[in-house]
Amino acid sequence: MRIDPKARSLVNPVKLNDRESMRLAALERYEVMDTPREASFDDLAGLTAKLLDAPIAVINLIGEGRQFFKAEVGLGVRSTPLESSFCVKALLEDDFLLISNLAVDGRFECNPLVTGDPHIRSYAGALLKTGEGLPIGTLCVLDHRSREWTALHQETLRVLAQQVMAQLDLRLTMRQRDRRYDEVRESEDRFRNMADHAPVMMWVTDPQGNCTYLNRQWYIFTGQTPVEAEGLGWLDATHPDDKAEAGRIFLEANAAQAPFRLDYRLRCADGSYRWAIDAASPRFGQDGQFLGYIGSVIDIDERRAAEDAVRHSSALLAAVMEAVPGVVYAKDRSGRMLAANRGTAELVGKPLSAIIGRTDREFLDDPSQAAAIEVNDRRIMAENYVEVLEEEISLPDGTCATWLSTKAPFRDADGIVVGLVGSSIDISERKRAEDALVHLNETLEEEVVERTAERDRMWETSPDLMLVIDFDGVFRRVNPAWTAMLGYDATALVGHHVNEFVLEEDHPRTAEALRLTADGQRPDVEVRYRHKDGSVRWISWVAAPAGDMTYATGRDVTAVKEQAEALAQAEEQLRQAQKMEAVGQLTGGLAHDFNNLLTAVTGGLELLGAKLAKGEYDKVDRYISMAQTGANRAAALTQRLLAFSRRQTLAPKPTDVDRLIAEMEEIIDRTLGPSIEVKVVSANGLWPILVDAPQLENALLNLCINARDAMPEGGQLTIETGNKALDARAAAAQDLPPGDYVSLCVTDTGTGMEPEIIERVFDPFFTTKPIGEGTGLGLSMIYGFVRQSGGQVRIYSEVGQGTTMCLYLPRLVGSQDLDDAGPSPEMRHRAQQGQTVLLVEDEIAIRELVSEILGDAGYRVLTASNGPMGVAILQTNERIDLLVTDVGLPGGLNGRQVADAGRVARPELKVLFVTGYAANAAVGAGHLDKGMEVLTKPFNIIELERRVGEMISS
């Protein structure tokens, strides 16, 4: 058999090169040579033979001087010599050794496996490479026939070779893991043995904070069992008052993976508690992973008691030092400061950290003072006695102070002087006071004379009144200004009561001022005094009591009072002038409007009479309608005047604003015309409000008309509702109380308004329309109605962009139901058997008219021409289902008073007030009690029947 020289160099190498050494070392790390068969490798060899359709497949590992088959199919042996190895040649290739016919390949033509049994003819092998690229063997297939190895065969071998290496790597990893586990277990056994014999309690936790081990000392100390202590059970051995805090600190530290230390009381086996300190550090693996804690617990009960005693003594000493005024300190024998209080730091002007442990020379800025203090200190310690002395000290601000110091030596247990204690108080003020007292005593008489002269000059020359008066009001002394100001000299005043000179109407104020001064107060009071010549002067007094007397000064404020009165009169005249101007404008407007309306009424009635006289009835309805239309317009104008006065009588009811808008959409569309697009934006869940619905309809229609006039070329008008919850700040911005409101906003795309126009739009009679096209009462009426309803009106406008008018009305809170749509106005109401109405009306024509209307409707009608007659009927036993009364009545009782008197006798009495003017005071400041409603004049027959029928049946 001929051996190739290259193969011989590998079979019997004289010296392995570096790469071969590395390759063999890599193979050795896998620890796989001469190991038993393993199913995973056998499966891979079998799969390789099957996929490449070869009778022989081998996982071959090439060691030093031999090759080992980890797995083989079709060969029957586990090892063969390198001399007959095909795979050893493969190690010289990069990835594959592929031979289609071994018999003609010079490297293998003499190989016994080729020339003899089993007559191998073809070979394909893929290198098994480590992660570093070192080949440790091959995955190969052999065939008895010559064959070509395709690219698919090569790819299959490459993938399967990678799987073999993956399996080898996995095997190596698992063996290393097992080895580390054995090492860890051995280490833990050593640790537990050491910990169980340690003199302190020790413990170990896992990453979740559960205690996995406590040593024997823990169980001896606490009496717990392992089952009780492990996990978080160790906390049960802590004192109940400490358990929650100990658990919190431990778990927070565990979450942060940080060291911790805590003190708590630990229960002993006998049930008593002792203080212990628990400290631990986190454990981390080689990869940095948190493994838990290892910690120890030490009994510190005796140490804790000693520390508490020391702390108590130190706290007591510190409290005493801080409580002592001035400076308190202690020094050692060499003069170093051992302790000092806050006063010491304030004296020196440096923090205690700059004083403790240093001598006076080291922390005092003045070396001479420091030297003097040290001399005194050494002398006192040497002579061993207590000394009190005065010391001059320079303060941090540069000023000097005098301190009274007491210094005494302190001794150790053997009586040897080891230091000095001292205290000092600042007596600078006392020294200055002593000096000042000496000086004052020397100059006192001179000062008294000078001060008395100054006081007398002030008393004599002051232009203001000055007096001394007792608490009973008797003058005791007055200054000369009384003569100049009121004409009285001192003899006419002293000994007399003050009220002898005060106007009688002001006596109570004078008496109150005297009472206040007697109580120690200092009152200010203005009263009128009678001049000696009979005229009156206003005097403003400021008084202060002292002892049993009152000292007061008074100033003549008559001119100020007269100026204020003149100003008030001028303001009233101005208001009256403005009022008269407004009345003038109103008179002209009313005359014009009412003349037009009366013309329609009287003209229609005259034509009606003329036609009836001629027996012509074909146009009767037209003339009646003409008169009714004029009367209705006159009524509407009256209501606008009442609204302008902000005192119209309201009949508020629960109202759904969205429903009201929906019912008005048709009339709004017709009023605005086709050139304006109307858009309604309704809020979901809109709150109800309590409001006079007809007045709100009128207000909305007025706003829409104004918006139409601002869009002469057409545009868009948006009506929007919303719920507004206004807090204190938002409500203040709208000039409203805080609370819930419903907003009704009308927005146009019209011309907009200048700021100066916005400021005046609510003024009566102000209008931007041409003469004859507007009275200027529309927005004023809206403003009055909304304000009287508890709401507010706000304008947002920009020239060229449009205007938004917003009404804010209070939300109705409660369970009151919204009114359903009422019956048709054309539905006539008829009385039920026996229903009786009491009518109180002073106008004969109206009383007869209403009586006839109600009588025709089937009601029994009782009448009274004044209030007292109505009350008399109400006090009888007559059946009365409804009281219909005018508000303004003769006889001393108005309609509201009649209703109130009637409800005394009949608490459930229903009342319908009929009024033609703003009699809000008579019906309750514009708001009605339950069971009361208002019908305004003029009214039509159907409306009267409907209101009477609804009230009786409700």
Can you give a write-up of this model?
- The chain is an alpha+beta fold and about 950 residues long.
- It is built from 28 helices and 33 strands.
- The strands form seven sheets. The protein has a six-stranded antiparallel beta sheet with strand order 3-2-1-6-5-4. A five-stranded antiparallel beta sheet has the order 8-7-11-10-9, with helices on both faces. A five-stranded antiparallel beta sheet has the order 13-12-16-15-14, sandwiched between helices.
- Helix 3 packs antiparallel against helix 6 (about 150-195), helix 18 (about 560-615) packs antiparallel against helix 19 (about 620-645) and helix 26 (about 865-875) packs parallel to helix 27.
- About 25% of the residues are buried.
Short summary of the structure?
The protein is an alpha+beta fold and 954 residues long.
